[in-house]
Each structure stands twice: as C-alpha cells, then as structure tokens.
Amino acid sequence: DGGITQSPKYLFRKEGQNVTLSCEQNLNHDAMYWYRQDPGQGLRLIYYSQIVNDFQKGDIAEGYSVSREKKESFPLTVTSAQKNPTAFYLCASSIQQGRTEAFFGQGTRLTVV
Amino acid sequence: GEDVEQSLFLSVREGDSSVINCTYTDSSSTYLYWYKQEPGAGLQLLTYIFSNMDMKQDQRLTVLLNKKDKHLSLRIADTQTGDSAIYFCAKRAYIPTFGRGTSLIVHP
C-alpha cells in the first residue's frame, strides 16, 4: 500500500534538546511539506521541498531544519532554538508542487517536558 | 487576510444535515478540496471540485461552489457521530493552502 509514514506518533523532548521527526513516502511524489498544527490555528507551513536536494522555508521556519537527500524521505529537526515546539506536526506530499492534491501522514505529537 | 477562511465550529444533531462553509480570495481556475481530520490523525481527502463546476455529489456529501461570491460549501446529509471531526477546505496552489478548519460536533 502506498502512503506517507510519520514516526514516531508521540515524541517527548527535554528543554535544550534537538529532536528529529521522520517522514517517509512510497508514492513517488516529488514535492513534500511539513506543517505545524496548533489548536484553532489551522496548518502553518514550516518547510517544503520541490525536488531532491532542494528545500525552501515556509512561514514559520525559525527553529527548524530539514534535509531532502532522498526522494522518499523528508526529516524535520526541531532544534533547541524553537522556543515553543509543543504541537502536532504533519508531513504531506504531492506528485508535483502545485499540480495535485496533497496526501498526509498520520502526524507526530511533540511535547516538551 | 487569509486566502481561505472558514468558521471554527459547527454543532448539529445526529441525523440532521451539516453545512460547512468556506470563502476564498483567489479567483483563478483551480481545484478546491475538502479534507477531514479525525482526532490525533492526519488529513484525509474527502472530495474535490474544479472551479468550472457548480456542484458535485458523492454519496452523503454535496459540494456547492458559488464562483461569483467565491464561496464553497460542504453538505453532509444524515450526519452521524462518526462525522465528528475537523473539516478543512483547501485550494490547489504552488503551496497547498488550507483554511483554519471547522470543528464539527455531532450530538445525539
């Protein structure tokens, strides 16, 4: 079955730690996206990637970093510079940027302890 | 203002129809989507409509598009408790653009 897999489903971070959220897709999609979801605020774009080895900042990129070394993988690192990282993180992909609908993973809930 | 706007909450009784509304600003031809998000899960594509259509029906779901007013609605007939979720409207764009989501609460 094709789809997008995010792991882990729940993640706890101590103050000052970096953590990495995994996103893998086997849909052969070129474009991938990371969104952050907070209650009542909808989806806010963190980073997006149109092709391998290329990515662009979204609206709220500060305190986050990404890489796109393989077409199927787009990991997101939440760094210690992100002061309020507790949120629900969603990864999505589309065949090509701006050409089709987006498909979503099941999300990772990150909590700072 | 935001490209896509939605009201935040809707409460209906089980068995009634639900109507979730959305307005958008960009009038260029494109696809418009409705997604459903259940608690603790990702977004699932429910249905879509192309901007040259007025209506699309898919079982209990009816999508209406008023291009003049840039207004999109999703009607769910015979709403069930399993329909309780957050519903997002979205438009196809270089960056997928979503509304803030409407929380649908279905009570007995």
What do these coordinates show?
The complex is a heterodimer of chains A (113) and B (108). Helix content of chain A is 0%, strand content 46%. Chain A is mainly β and 113 residues long. In chain A, the strands form two sheets. In chain A, strands 2, 4, 5, 6, 9, 10 and 11 form a seven-stranded mixed β-sheet that branches. In chain A, strands 1-3-8-7 form a four-stranded antiparallel β-sheet, with no helix packed on it. The model of chain A has no long low-confidence stretch (mean pLDDT 93). In chain B, 0% of the residues lie in helices and 56% in strands. Chain B has strands at residues 4-6, 9-13, 18-24, 31-37, 43-50, 55-58, 61-66, 71-76, 85-91, 97-98, 102-107. In chain B, the strands form two sheets. In chain B, strands 2, 4, 5, 9, 10 and 11 form a six-stranded mixed β-sheet that branches. A five-stranded antiparallel β-sheet of chain B has the order 1-3-8-7-6, with no helix packed on it. The model of chain B has no long low-confidence stretch (mean pLDDT 92). Chains A and B meet through β5, β9 and β10 of A and β4 and β5 of B.
